[in-house]
Amino acid sequence: MVRHATIKDIQTIYRLLQFFGNRGEMIPRPLSALYDHVRDFVVYISPETGMVAGCCALQFCWEDLAEIRSLAVDVAHQGKGVGKMMVETLVEEARSFGITQLFTLTYQPVFFGKLNFNRIDRADLPLKIWSDCVHCVKFPDCDEIAMMRELSYA
Predict the structure, then answer these.
(1) Are β-strands 101-106 and 65-73 bridged in parallel, bridged antiparallel, or unpaired?
(2) pTM value?
(3) Alpha-carbon distance 43 to 3, whole Å?
(4) What angle do CA 36, 26, 98 make, to 5 degrees?
(5) N or C end of the chain, less CB within 10 A?
(6) Domains and CATH numbers, the chain
(7) 153: pLDDT strictly greater than 80
(8) Exposed, middle or buried, 99 (CB in 10 Å: 0-12/13-18/19+)?
(9) Per its UniProt record, what InterPro entries does this chain match (predicted)?
(10) Rounded to whole angstroms, how far apart are CA atoms 9 and 23?
């Protein structure tokens, strides 16, 4: 089950992001930032344990642009469609706000490609989105892949 995160989920979200951040697979986020952005997150609740086993966030950047970020799935739940469920939940939320473009910065282009994201040049993204990047140990030599999904409203 995917649902919006609550304050009580933040410690688990933090641990998930730290785990993958420590492996160099994503930018870890400070605990204070997670509390500030709790409304951006959805979580996946494992039916077996009733515990948070994944998280993903939608951050608005501009009137028609938003970012899918902080996607993390507990290792035991990977390969089971958990990431896809969370991303598609946030795609629908983005649509409800009238967003026409969703982007992500990722090391998992095959995963996002299956969800209709296409590779783009990072230089095509607005400078505003790089504000978090200055905190990354890889800045300014980012090696993440920028991908974009156009949202249709047919």
Answers:
(1) parallel
(2) 0.90
(3) 6
(4) 55
(5) C
(6) 2-150 (3.40.630.30)
(7) no
(8) buried
(9) Acyl_CoA_acyltransferase, GNAT_dom, NSI-like
(10) 22
